[in-house]
TrEMBL record:
<feature type="transmembrane region" description="Helical">
    <location>
        <begin position="320"/>
        <end position="341"/>
    </location>
</feature>
<dbReference type="GO" id="GO:0005886">
    <property type="term" value="C:plasma membrane"/>
</dbReference>
<keyword id="KW-0653">Protein transport</keyword>
<dbReference type="InterPro" id="IPR026593">
    <property type="entry name" value="SecY"/>
</dbReference>
<feature type="transmembrane region" description="Helical">
    <location>
        <begin position="123"/>
        <end position="140"/>
    </location>
</feature>
<feature type="transmembrane region" description="Helical">
    <location>
        <begin position="160"/>
        <end position="179"/>
    </location>
</feature>
<feature type="transmembrane region" description="Helical">
    <location>
        <begin position="401"/>
        <end position="422"/>
    </location>
</feature>
<dbReference type="InterPro" id="IPR002208">
    <property type="entry name" value="SecY/SEC61-alpha"/>
</dbReference>
<feature type="transmembrane region" description="Helical">
    <location>
        <begin position="373"/>
        <end position="395"/>
    </location>
</feature>
<keyword id="KW-1133">Transmembrane helix</keyword>
<keyword id="KW-0811">Translocation</keyword>
<dbReference type="Pfam" id="PF00344">
    <property type="entry name" value="SecY"/>
</dbReference>
<keyword id="KW-1003">Cell membrane</keyword>
<keyword id="KW-0813">Transport</keyword>
<dbReference type="GO" id="GO:0006605">
    <property type="term" value="P:protein targeting"/>
</dbReference>
<keyword id="KW-0472">Membrane</keyword>
<dbReference type="InterPro" id="IPR023201">
    <property type="entry name" value="SecY_dom_sf"/>
</dbReference>
Length: 447
């Protein structure tokens, strides 16, 4: 039997949306914030020769710079004030999350509730500033060392350029962090994810136009392009299916008598996602594999012979690249899942509140069972992420197709879209609940 919330959700329609004034304000605020972000990606960094850097980036677009440029919505390609994008904040969040699992003091903060969460967020902001300082200074030194056709990328190298670059880049990152928090608080939520989403989506029209141009010139047949679009739709449907897939474990709570009333006795579910790690594994795997290629590209002499050999074997589409990419994705799937979900802690919380899984003894047996179930789910989730991320690599290697609609970018776009729709759905539910409460009060007064 459907619950009252599910029945109410089924009745939500466009009319409910048109009456939700607060939700419309949140959506307009989110769109305005994202427009500000997109405008900022076109403001160039002072002291850069744009033409020389564009030529240099064209030669290095296959390395890690190309991946960062995808997340930054073209800001790296144009070397704008938002070139670092929100990546230092994401790195800081991951580091704090990993440290929480190994540091007793941070773990204690995590268990303190809202106050502990605020302190962890503050530590994340401090670490974001530190990472942005290091990355922006390293970027300034790297820009000074770049040469294209004998011409330097930086017009006037020196400490003034380095200082201005550090201040500008750190300021841009902190502004984006603030903007993401404002979208989360005053918009539809998921502010940081929506900023990355906007950057990736901004590159899709150009990618689609390039595919159409290949079809016009005869480099790709019409049927092949239609096949690519059909494959993209299949991949999107697969991502939606696997991202929504859950294993719901039944949790039973015993009946307890308090005074003359009985409480508890109901059953609930403990949902375990098929893909607990999200998009972190392919991002980490791509970053590690692209490091040798980027190192060779930044070296004016092409780097040592052994590094050039490794780069040759780790080029996109090579068998070694495919094998290592798969191995790293699987490794990070299990590693990150172990960090974000602690079976022992979950089992202890269930035991503390009197909950138990039918047929499983509370305590260690419950923790072992949760670990067993989660391991099997992670195997399937890792296989799903691997297939989605290897698909564009195979298309480019075998058919020379610029398959943009796959891999990490498509995974991010679909998951963020699903989360945003869920947030809008929850706002609509809240609006309808408020309407029902107001009607009930009016009826009570009339009665």
């Amino acid at each position: 039997m459907a619950s009252a919330a599910e029945q109410l959700a089924a009745n939500i329609n466009f009319g409910a949306f048109s009456k939700a004034t607060e939700l419309k304000k949140r959506i307009w605020f989110t769109l305005g914030a994202l427009i500000v972000y997109r405008l900022g990606t076109y403001i160039p960094l002072p002291g850069i020769d744009s033409g020389a850097f564009a030529s240099f980036f064209a030669d290095q677009s296959g390395g890690i710079l190309g991946m960062f440029n995808m997340f930054a919505g073209g800001a790296v390609e144009r070397m704008s004030i938002f070139a670092l994008n929100i990546m230092p904040y994401i790195s800081a969040s991951i580091i704090i999350q990993l440290m929480t699992a190994v540091s007793p003091s941070l773990e204690a903060l995590k268990k303190e509730g809202e106050s502990g969460r605020k302190r962890l967020n503050q530590y994340t902001r401090y670490l974001t500033v530190a990472l942005a300082l290091v990355q922006s200074y390293g970027l300034a030194l790297g820009l000074e060392g770049m040469n294209q056709g004998g011409a330097g990328v930086v017009i006037d190298p020196g400490w003034y350029f380095r200082l201005s670059t550090v201040i500008t880049m750190v300021g841009g990152t902190m502004f984006l962090m603030w903007l993401g928090e404002q979208i989360t608080a005053r918009g539809v939520g998921n502010g940081i994810s929506l900023i990355i989403f906007a950057g990736i989506v901004a590159a899709l029209p150009g990618a689609f136009a390039q595919i159409l141009e290949l079809g016009r010139t005869g480099a790709m047949s019409t049927w092949f392009i239609l096949g690519l679009l059909l494959l993209a739709m299949i991949v999107i449907m697969a991502i939606v299916f696997f991202e929504r897939a859950q294993r719901r474990l039944i949790v039973q709570y015993p009946k307890r008598q308090m005074g003359n009333k009985m409480y508890g006795g109901e059953a609930s579910h403990l949902p375990l996602k098929l893909n607990t790690a999200g998009v972190i594994p392919p991002i980490f795997a791509s970053s590690l594999l692209l490091l040798p290629l980027t190192a060779v590209g930044f070296s004016s002499a092409g780097g040592p012979d052994w590094l050039a050999t490794i780069t040759q074997y780790l080029a996109h589409g090579t068998p070694l690249y495919m094998v290592l990419y798969t191995a790293l994705i699987v490794f990070f799937c299990f590693f990150y899942t172990a960090i974000v979900f602690n079976p022992t802690e979950t089992a202890e919380n269930l035991k503390k509140y009197g909950g138990f899984i039918p047929g499983i003894r509370p305590g260690k047996n419950t923790a072992d069972y949760l670990d067993f179930v989660l391991t099997r789910l992670t195997v399937v989730g890792a296989a799903y992420i691997t297939v989605v991320c290897l698909l564009p690599e195979i298309m480019m290697a075998e058919y020379g197709a610029a398959f943009y609609f796959g891999g990490t970018s498509l995974l991010i776009m679909v998951t963020v879209t699903m989360d945003t729709v869920a947030q809008i759905h929850s706002h609509l539910l809240a609006h309808q609940y408020e309407g029902l409460i107001k009607k009930a009060k009016l009826r009570g007064r009339r009665g």
